[in-house]
Amino acid sequence: MKNNLFILxxxxxxxxxxxxxxxxxxxxxSPKGIAEVxxxxxxxxxxxxxTREEDVTAQMEIKNSENSSYDASQLYKGEIIIKGRGNxxxxxxxxxxxxxxxxxxxPIIEPFKHKRSxxxxxxxxxxxxxxxxxxxxxxxxxxxxxxxxxDKSLMRIPxxxxxxxxxxxxxxxxxxxxVELYVNGEYRGLYGLCEKIERDKNxxxxxxxTADDSDISGGYIIEGTPxxxxxxxxxxxxFATNRDVRFTFTYPKTKNxxxxxxxxxxxxxxxxxxxxxxxxxxDSQNGYLKYIDEKSFIDWYIIQELAKxxxxxxxxxxxxxxxxxxxxxxxxxxxDFDIAFGNIDYQECYNEDEFRLRKSKWFSRLFQDTxxxxxxxDRYDExxxxxxxxxxxxxxxxxxxxxxxxxxxxxxxxxILGTYIWPNYRxxxxxxxxxxxxxxxxxxxxxxxxYINMGATEADCIERLKNSRPTIRIMEPEIFNxxxxxxxxxxxxxxxxxxxxxxxxxxxxxxxxxxxVNSYEYTINKEGKHYVQLVDNKGNRxxxxxxxxxxEEPIYYLEEETNSIGKIDKNTFSLFPNPVxxxxxxxxxxxxxxxxxxxxFNVNGxxxxxxxxxKENASDYFEMDVSDLQNGIYFLQIxxxxxxxxNKIIISR
Length: 653
Description:
five-stranded antiparallel beta sheet, 4 domains, Immunoglobulin-like, alpha+beta, globular, seven-stranded mixed barrel
């Protein structure tokens, strides 16, 4: 099958690892492979009999598969307690709805045909906690087996947690390892074995709080939870702030928390909300900053806004806050992104445009503080090199999952590709590659929309527009790759600052001819390369998108070519060191004394650096200074009079 999608053309240059300097730092998966988890339920129970309310005893063995190589000390064989976990991911029970708005219609799925998530507690034979290190993750006794049922890319949760670890505004982001699960001997598909959010020195490192403590200022871990998800018998152990943001307790445990502790943390949040909405809210000593760790709020906002995570608004669900003793409160850790990053069909979270969290109860007020807004803008720009690496990170993960065989096994067990699973956004890709492509394109488009609309002024937004490339989102990738007429989408305008153009117009270029359209939807049905540019109503244009080619063989280059040109075998030269810190050495004995043009592109397709080796200084070795470039993944293009060649380098300091 022809793969003509240029937004994915960088994947041609990927190797098996993103970064060789730290085998885990830039990977969503462990390079030690995908282990197997075998669970045998006690008392002849079946999978259908596991509930979210009752503990079930079982035996669990974690062992190496044919393609994993964990040390024996990282495996497990022993007793566990297991029960169901999750809300929408459980999707088989409908609890009473106590809220004021309509609950999304979650279809009931026969439990055994559904991949559900589970809580796993490691215990000894006598029932005591059995703390263990699992698959190179720090020792603990509480774990989660996380499903990727609705997320057919199998990557949204691992990607979010990875980004959380890279963003130093969070002291902790959960670790997760891909595993294949067997229950009572039956294969149950690909899962994530994941750290649960718990008070622990290796997780949320806050002080222990008991009923006897006289200082009850911490530590606390609380979770934003809608009323319908709270057992009515436990609602008196939850609380709502004056602004009606409702929380339950993760630590202390619900059964252990005292009324005095509930009232203390409730009062603290009410004081924060009062300060936030007071006339002196910008004051650094007596305003909202008296109560919150600003850095965590900024990073939490950015990753949730990037993902357009539906549950993040008003801290509706899976939104955690923790507070240590005599410290300010932190927003985080992040949790639960399976229906984020465009994998949803309601509340406009499927579109990559618009600000979502700026309309929420806390952040709408925070953004009225121009200092806070500027810090968010600066931090987003600072994080762009990380976000620019997302396509390469996802593609490395995709390659790893495909080569392990687990993608095929998972979807053989659950043949849901191309089938609606709540709340997938239609049209539905019919292949795993299509799901991956959908994810990359959505994030690339969302990232760029946010970058443009983060501008402080309209003039700033215009400058950002001029330096941005839109992303062509192919809505039916399999149809496109089969060279049939295909629907595509481009981001809309809809910014809050960028008011001169509520919606962009679009300039499509095909065979050097431009066509202006006003709709963000477009149909590609002509052979050749297609580009698009955004244009506002003052005529300001973005850079052209990376092209997509319909009806053509793949073309491997990083910039537009107007002439037919050959392709040099990339194995004719070597690059070292790679990763590189300041100086990259390029070696080849086959270039002779020809002139070389050398370019570096970032993962967004933008030219970052260009140098020329002239005939006069020709040799087998050429040194390129990259000390002025930011850390990240870059694509190196070398051209001489016989052709071009491309490869990947990593700048890491």
